[in-house]
Design brief:
There is one protein chain. With 346 residues, the protein is mainly α. 70% of the residues lie in helices and 3% in strands. It has one domain. The strands form two sheets. It has a two-stranded antiparallel sheet with strand order 1-2. A two-stranded parallel ribbon has the order 3-4. Strand 1 and strand 2 form a beta hairpin. The chain starts with a helix and ends in a 16-residue tail after the last helix.
């Protein structure tokens, strides 16, 4: 490769760095950081890992990019992003890999029977839809906004790019949907197609200000905000334990999931203000990721050796992001005399 060609390649990477970051973060958080795609495969099955993570990028990355572009083009806020993220979760788990209808085995385990009715794993479907909405879509979009604040309201894709990623997403969902077994009944498929359509319609309707931070300062401290970010995964973990021992009916577990996540949204809307909003968003993101770091401590010595390296990478990225936010908060420093002499009086 000539030096001029290498220079053009570096320039192209820098120009598309926000897109590449979102393409990486969208699958890395729900797959690598949770252990769903074991990072240890790099050692004993590198080709399989590259192919598998490439497919994850095509799925998660395309979904996150398209939803992010939708929010920019139609001037939508977090409510629309979360609604479309939920539709994404249904597309992945319901239409592609069919875990909504899987009765046993990995990954559903006990949730394949706990809350299973009319051929659907309702508790699994509820928790995974919310998980994908937040961890697979909203969190990667939030982190890229914090990393690249100057481009958060800019379109990243031209019409051809939207068509490419849209086609890539549809081909993977439909293609794997035909290959994977334990598919839905026609009634169940029709139901979830209808739910996804309603979510998309609501995303189109939802005003930009819905779930937006209120004017003024934030009235919740740093530690409570970090803990608030960890609630969703802790609720999900609690549901896994409940499904294994079944001390309460499945309907009560569903209520726990809905109330827990609704309470988080309510506190955010009421207590997070526009003053220092980036810092509040960062702390909430730290909470969402920190609980996964603790999860990785368990996985490292039980199922997925090497996963702590993924946690270390994300800790490093958070430290870098924290420093970047601090520089923005302080603002640029102007050397004494650089602004010139004050204007002469009248």
């Amino acid at each position: 490769m000539t030096s001029s060609r290498a220079g053009r390649l570096r320039a192209a990477v820098r120009a598309n760095w926000p897109i590449l970051s979102l393409l990486f973060l969208a699958p890395a958080i729900p797959e690598l950081l949770t252990g769903s795609t074991p990072v240890s495969e790099i050692a004993y099955n590198p080709i399989g890992f590259v192919i598998g993570f490439g497919l994850d990028i095509a799925l998660y990355g395309s979904g996150a990019l398209l939803i992010r572009e939708f929010a920019v083009v139609y001037r939508k806020g977090w409510a629309s992003i979360l609604l479309l993220g939920a539709a994404y979760g249904i597309a992945e788990e319901g239409f592609e890999v069919h875990t909504f209808f899987q009765t046993s085995g990995t990954p559903v385990e006990a949730l394949g029977s706990y809350g299973h009715l009319f051929g659907v794993n309702w508790i699994w479907a509820l928790t995974l839809t919310i998980f994908h909405s937040t961890y697979s879509i909203a969190l990667p979009i939030l982190l890229t906004r914090l990393w690249f604040p100057g481009s958060q309201d800019e379109r990243w894709l031209r019409r051809r790019g939207v068509g490419f990623f849209g086609g890539l997403f549809v081909v993977e969902v439909v293609g794997f949907g035909f290959l994977v077994g334990h598919g839905p009944s026609p009634a169940a498929l029709g139901f979830f197609v209808g739910v996804a359509a309603v979510l998309i319609a609501l995303a189109l309707w939802a005003p930009r200000y819905l779930l937006r931070a209120r004017p003024g300062r934030t009235t919740i401290g740093r530690t409570p905000l970090v803990l608030l970010g960890s609630v969703e995964f802790l609720v999900y973990f609690a549901v896994l334990i409940i499904a294994a021992s079944r001390p309460i009916p499945a309907l009560a577990a569903a209520a726990l999931v809905i109330v827990g996540n609704a309470a988080v949204l309510l506190v955010i809307v009421r207590r997070v203000g526009t003053e220092g909003l980036e810092r509040s968003e960062f702390r909430f993101a730290v909470g969402m990721l920190s609980v996964l770091f603790v999860w990785d401590l368990l996985l490292e010595f039980i199922l997925v050796p090497g996963i702590l390296a993924v946690s270390a990478l994300f800790v490093y990225l958070l430290v870098r992001l924290d420093r970047s936010l601090k520089r923005r908060e302080v603002g640029p420093t102007v050397p004494l005399g650089a602004a010139g002499l004050p204007p002469a009086g009248p």
